[in-house]
Amino acid sequence: MGLSTHVLDTMHGCPAAGMAVALWATSGPAPQLLQQLVLNHDGRNPNGPLLDNTTLQVGTYRLVFDVKGYFAARGVALPEPPFLDQVSLDFGVADTTQHYHVPLLVSPWSYSTYRGS
């Protein structure tokens, strides 16, 4: 299945529809932008997996979530500067035959992640 993500807005208790996300490959000498996307109504990539098993490579990656932009667009009053702006998650892929699911649970003041299934 490759690499996927899912974002849940824990402040409002719903998927983070409309959040901008960027995927970077970080194994080389400089990070390489692989794709940018906006999450759908379910808080997921509208095109399915970010990378399928044939595209996913062993190495390190970074997902960058635009938390500030998302909550500002929802009308949440944020301080300046906000406590969270962009949340970057760096992770490694060791076995491309496995599914790597990287969910994010987020509010304007906290976040958590884990390797999902």
Overview of this protein structure:
The protein is mainly β. It has one domain (3-113): Immunoglobulin-like (Sandwich). It has one helix and eight strands, in the order βββββαβββ. The radius of gyration is 14 Å and the shape is globular.
Instruction: Provide the CATH superfamily.
Output: Transthyretin/hydroxyisourate hydrolase domain
Strand content: 35-45%
CATH topology: Immunoglobulin-like
Which class do the helix and strand fractions yield?
mainly beta
- Profile the largest sheet: 4 strands, mixed
Number of helices: 1
- Biggest sheet: strand arrangement: 2-1-7-8
Poorly predicted runs: none
Please tell me the total number of domains.
1
The rounded Rg comes to 14 Å
Provide keyphrases for this structure:
117 residues; mainly beta; Immunoglobulin-like; 4-stranded antiparallel β-sheet
Short description:
6% of the residues lie in helices and 41% in strands. It has one helix at residues 67-73; strands at residues 3-9, 14-15, 20-25, 32-38, 59-66, 86-93, 100-106, 111-113. The protein has a four-stranded mixed beta sheet, with no helix packed on it.
List the helices and strands and how they pair.
Blueprint: E1 3-9, E2 14-15, E3 20-25, E4 32-38, E5 59-66, H1 67-73, E6 86-93, E7 100-106, E8 111-113
